[in-house]
Design goal:
alpha/beta, six-stranded mixed sheet, two-stranded antiparallel ribbon, 42% helix
Length: 172
Amino acid sequence: MAEVLAGGGGAAERKVMVAIDESDYSHYALTWVLENLKESVINSSLVIFMAQPPPTNSYTFSAPLGSARMYCPVSATPELTNSIQENNKKLTLALLGKAKEMCASCGVKAETITEVGDPSTAICDAVQKFDISLLVLGERGLGKIKRALLGSVSNYCVQNAKCPVLVVKKPK
């Protein structure tokens, strides 16, 4: 279920959504939008979106064994799961607040939205749900092998989002 956290003006026909996470790449994408698309986002609605990780029933902790490590899967208690979800929500709200402050310092009003779920599908679902006209994402710069093994949120969104997608690459 989406949670609209802060409003940013009246109903606009065009909506630009910047999907962020805690990485420098998404921060750069938001900065790029504010510098290069400022006139567009001032005259339309800017939405800042962040997905919260879904809860899981088991967590893996590492235990040091000299120079080796042993990884121990642990079943999560409801208290642990709730605590982790609360911490994820606090982190998400803090990052969205920081992003909204960045927008305000540039004279841009933004609406912040968060959803719990896998980032790839949550972003594409939000695009459709909130009738987004342009999706902007940062690219982590994974190589071909890592992208194939780990998957790429930006690649998934380019293939599945129901609007144009702009992927912003951070200069090296």
